[in-house]
């Protein structure tokens, strides 16, 4: 998967191409780069991200990850970015996992 900024699998694309990434997954991940760390729970993901950030802010992306972190009490501050048009599908950040849209 690539975009005009680079390979998204290695963190080369997106708004923070040099940031270290923590990949939250319930199962095996096909590819992982040196810039990525794999975590199996939101608690492990946030702990790994905080360690990698070395005192700097940590950002979460994705409605499911944000909802899980909020439910686990792991969020200190919430900053929302409004995107007027989203292509594709995803999980809404406004609904808990047990609530249907």
Helix and strand composition category: alpha+beta
Strand content: 5-15%
Low-confidence stretches: 1-6
Strand order of the largest sheet: 1-2
Question: How many helix segments?
Answer: 2
Radius of gyration: 14 Å
Report the count of strand segments.
4
Helix content: 10-25%
Shape descriptor: globular
Mean pLDDT: 76
**How far do the termini sit from each other?**
29 Å
The profile of the biggest β sheet is:
2 strands, antiparallel
H/E element sequence:
EEEEHH
Report a brief summary of the structure:
The chain is an alpha+beta fold and 101 residues long.
What can you tell me about this protein's structure?
With 101 residues, the chain is α+β, with helices and mostly antiparallel strands. Helix content is 21%, strand content 12%. The chain has a two-stranded antiparallel sheet with strand order 1-2. A two-stranded parallel sheet has the order 3-4. The protein is globular and about 35 Å long. The relative contact order is 0.12.
List keywords for this structure.
single chain, 101 residues, alpha+beta, two-stranded antiparallel ribbon, 2 helices, 4 strands, globular, disordered N terminus
Topology:
Elements: E1 2-3, E2 6-7, E3 21-24, E4 36-39, H1 42-53, H2 63-71
Parallel strand pairs: 3-4
Antiparallel strand pairs: 1-2
